[in-house]
Design goal:
Oligomer: heterotrimer
Number of strands of chain A: 5
Largest interface: A-C, 52 and 52 residues
Radius of gyration of chain B: 18 Å
Radius of gyration of chain A: 23 Å
Chains: A mainly alpha (285), B alpha/beta (242), C mainly alpha (338)
CATH architecture of one domain in chain A: Orthogonal Bundle
Strand order of the largest sheet of chain A: 1-2-5
Strand content of chain A: 5-15%
Shape of chain B: globular
Structural class of chain B: alpha/beta
Structural class of chain A: mainly alpha
Strand content of chain B: 15-25%
Number of strands of chain B: 10
Order of helices and strands of chain A: HHHHEEEEEHHHHHH
Chain lengths: 285, 242, 338
């Protein structure tokens, strides 16, 4: 206890009302400037976390389902390409992958003037990824950078790509296990009735597979959200990142850590609660 | 209707069917019996290509079964199958089970498909179960639903793979009754079963298989009362003895 | 050819995929081979590297000592090298079922002592090297080894506690497990890094490595506990009944009958958790420890070598991949043997 007093570390949450005094590199939904409070800064961090987590979950699910189904394909190339993807992604730490994507974008991509343009209106450069959006029009090169359109900063893009591609590998395995869990007799009966392979997968296998897939799938969603905390290592201002800055500036380490843990605990307990509800009401007997 | 000419099949190194010849005419009812492992299930699964043969020919309704997917699909539309473990789709209601294939394969309109479904549900005597889920039905009811499901596709030929083997004894009769009615209406049927009473009543021919070959084939009266081969005699004594 | 027809062109969709994938491979592999091998620079010369279009493996050639051993004194590198080989050797030795006897524990104790002596020194004429200077591969391996060795028994206690009939113990175990599993590992590392020193009497310091190790242990214990709990639940209830009927006291029946079965069933998910834990050690970079990933990143910071991040992280991926893939292959073999 003497330690705590000495360092004035656990002096309560009053500091949240003080002026933060630091800038935040990007904000997903909210406006913020340096004269806002620490509390607002943390809330911005939280929204940033949720932004990358939500988009990440969607991309990872689509990618993971495609790869999981590909692993079951009769096409030799497709099946093995998917298997190689899964093996590689699961055996390399996420942090390494994040650093890799960040390096690819900041070192490997050309400057805005020579930006890659895989689709009209979409530009990939070392300053970020730009694409047209409903609200802000089409990106245009002005001077040294793009103006207009929606911009993904290198940090966000790297974090999103890393999280989505990494989690997709795990989702692929879950989807594959779910499909394999459906009895062979089901596909046989469907085939015997004359349903094509595609129809069988869509109408008979997938609906049944989903019930097996959903519990571990939500677990992966939770993992992705927790993993977004690695943002602090590549400079994306998520909750942990901003809490870290706050702790460094104010010295209030215990409160900072408490905030981080409380937020993530709430998210994970909510997901657990949803899972329990799902198992009780939807999963079939 | 069905022609099998010198058909052989291997599972890896193990030969499960050895040069089998079989012909089934339209409207004929054939019962296939034999000890387990004799290849009887594999034989009928060749007819709708749930199994592939490695040598010989299988011709169903004039179409030879090869790797050609279009031909396989065409054959499967005309051949109905009933499985030992029913294989009803648990996430669909009984009615949806019956209308799934007609809607998606024959492209029948939903309303028409449902009328057909109700018709066949009435034929198998459980129209009131239309909106229940398979898990809510007894085994005998589930198998009757499975028969109705196959019939909704209006097949030219019905295959039955030990349809009553997974049922409790008191439910076997209700399923057999439906099959007997079906037979009386002229459906071409191949039935793998141990139910010898059914064979006697309904079959035009009994085919006895052992160790991958057809050992004896004869009309039921002749097969049951005067079997020619020793293996058939042994089998009958085991099955009918108790 | 028939194989190709079935497995590559078995339908219009399959054909499209085959063509797309072949196109992708055609576009990606030759440039990659150019970059990684043909145009690559192997000399440790940053100027040559920058002038070339290919990968700069010279970076690895130049920095490999730092990457593998961190800030350990340069001329004493044989010690962490020997320690690394010894530790990997211990892992491989323990993987062979033939050696699963009681004396394996002794082998480990001896091995760990030898590693300790090698790393710290101070005896046999070897100069003392404080653990703040340890880094690189040996640090990653040590964190993993000690983390799992201590977390595993702890997790068994937690799993048993979670299923206990005593409400307080049960509540504590559930609370602990859910708390740890609900928060990111980073927050635990922060917590250990910042908070542990506060709970000690003033004057007593706890070094950074130990703080990180403790956080990793607490983290692993919660996840392993859930795996063990799964194993305990998977045993047929009849086993519990039979064990009770034999009137053995709790620890006897748990240790002799229940746990062996539970652990046997749990081997695949346990191995998966071990591999995940090995990957998670990379996070200690964030609190300033010099594990393998950290040394690679720091090596990049030198101005001369700035900008070769892609090569650096491809190399890092390869190293981790080799370790993790071997472990997962081994795990699959174990599964099949049982």
């Amino acid at each position: 206890m003497a330690n705590l007093e000495e360092r004035r570390i656990a002096s309560g949450f009053g500091f949240l009302g003080r002026e933060a005094g630091f800038e935040i590199g990007e904000t997903a939904f909210m406006r913020y400037n340096a004269s806002d409070t620490y509390l607002r800064a943390l809330v911005v961090g939280l929204t940033n976390t949720l932004a990358v987590a939500l988009v990440g979950v969607v991309v990872a699910t689509i990618l993971g389902t495609a790869i999981g189904l590909s692993r079951l394909s009769r096409n030799f190339l497709l099946r093995n390409a998917a298997a190689a993807y899964v093996e590689f992604m699961r055996n390399v730490p996420l942090l390494v992958q994040l650093f890799f994507w960040y390096a690819v974008i900041t070192e490997g991509m050309p400057g805005p003037r020579e930006a890659l343009s895989p689709l009209p209106g979409v530009f990939i450069s070392n300053r970020g990824i730009f694409f047209p959006s409903l609200f802000s029009g089409v990106p245009e090169l002005q001077g040294f950078n793009f103006v207009g359109g929606t911009a993904l900063t290198p940090e966000f893009a790297a974090l999103l790509t890393g999280l989505a591609t990494y989690t997709a590998a795990f989702i692929a395995e879950i989807v594959r296990a779910g499909v394999l869990a459906v009895h062979r007799g089901q596909t046989e009966a469907a085939h015997a009735l004359g349903l094509s392979r595609a129809q069988t997968t869509r109408l008979v296998v997938l609906p049944q597979a989903l019930r097996v897939i959903i519990p571990p799938l939500t677990s992966q969603y939770l993992n992705l959200t927790k993993n977004s905390s690695l943002a602090v290592a590549i400079g994306y201002p998520d909750l942990v990142s901003i809490a870290n800055t706050t702790m460094n500036q104010t010295g209030q380490a215990i409160e900072g850590i408490a905030v981080i843990m409380a937020v993530y605990l709430t998210i994970s307990l909510s997901i657990s609660a949803f899972m329990n509800w799902y198992n009780a009401h939807v999963a079939f007997k | 209707m069905i022609e099998m000419i010198r058909v052989s099949k291997w599972f890896g190194p193990f030969q499960v069917l050895k040069d089998v010849d079989l012909s089934v005419a339209r409207g004929e009812k054939v019962v296939v019996c034999g000890p387990s492992g004799s290849g009887k299930s594999t034989l009928i699964r060749l007819v709708n290509r749930l199994e592939e043969h490695q040598s010989g020919k299988v011709i169903v309704d004039g179409v030879e079964l090869t790797d050609d997917v279009k031909k396989i699909d065409a054959v499967r539309r005309e051949v109905g199958m009933v499985f030992q473990s029913f294989n009803l789709f648990p996430h669909l209601t009984v009615l949806e089970n019956l209308t799934l294939a007609p809607i998606w394969v024959r492209r029948v309109a939903k309303k028409e498909a449902e009328e057909t479904a109700m018709h066949f549900l009435a034929r198998v005597r459980i129209p009131e179960q239309a909106h229940k889920y398979p898990s809510q039905l007894s085994g005998g009811q589930q198998q009757r639903v499975a028969i109705a499901r196959a019939l909704c596709m209006r097949p030219k030929l019905m295959l039955f793979d030990e349809p009553t083997s997974a049922l409790d004894p008191e439910m076997i009769k209700e399923v057999l009754d439906v099959m007997v009615e079906l037979a009386r209406e002229g459906m071409t049927m191949i039935v793998v079963t141990h139910e010898m009473g059914f064979a006697r009543t309904v079959a035009d021919r009994v085919v006895f298989m052992d160790d991958g070959r057809i050992v004896e084939a004869a009309p039921p009266a002749q097969f049951f009362d005067a079997p020619k081969t020793d293996r058939a005699k042994l089998f009958l004594s085991q099955v009918l003895g108790h | 050819m028939r194989w190709a027809r079935e497995n590559l062109f078995g339908g219009w969709l399959s054909t499209i995929f085959t063509l797309l994938l072949l196109l992708l491979l055609w576009k990606a592999i030759p440039p990659f081979i150019d970059w990684a091998f043909l145009d690559a620079v192997w000399q440790p010369d940053p100027k040559v590297c920058r002038a070339s279009e290919g990968a700069c493996w010279g970076f690895i050639a130049e920095k490999h000592r730092f990457i593998l051993f961190g800030t350990y004194p340069y001329d004493l590198h044989w010690r962490p090298a020997a320690a690394t080989v010894l530790l990997i050797g211990l892992w491989i030795f323990s993987a062979i079922p033939l050696f699963w006897r009681w004396w394996l524990t002794l082998v480990w104790l001896a091995g760990l002592m030898a590693i300790g002596i090698l790393m710290w020194g101070g005896v046999f004429g070897m100069p003392y090297v404080e653990n703040e200077r340890w880094g690189g591969l040996i640090l990653t391996l040590l964190l993993t080894t000690f983390g799992l060795a201590i977390a595993f028994p702890l997790s068994i206690l937690l799993a048993l506690g979670r299923r206990s009939d005593m409400p307080i113990i049960r509540a504590l175990c559930v609370g602990y497990i859910e708390l740890i599993r609900g928060v990111p590992l980073i927050s635990l590392l922060f917590m250990a890094s910042v908070m542990l020193p506060l709970f000690l009497p003033s004057g007593v310091t706890i070094d950074k490595l130990l703080r990180a190790q403790i956080a990793m242990i607490l983290f692993a214990a919660a996840y392993l506990a859930e795996v063990v709990r799964g194993g305990l639940q998977a045993i047929p209830k009849g086993q519990y009944d039979a064990a009770h009927a034999l009137a053995l006291p709790f620890w006897r029946r748990t240790g002799l009958i229940i746990l062996p079965q539970a652990l046997r069933i749990s081997v695949p998910p346990l191995m998966n958790t071990f591999i995940a834990f090995f990957k998670d050690t990379s996070l200690v970079l964030i609190i300033g420890l010099f594990d393998l990933l950290s040394t690679i990143k720091i090596a990049l910071n030198e101005p001369a070598w700035n900008g070769f991040g892609v090569e650096a992280y491809v190399f890092a991926s390869l190293v981790y991949f080799v370790f993790c893939f071997s472990m997962s292959r081994y795990s699959r073999r174990l599964e099949h043997q049982r």
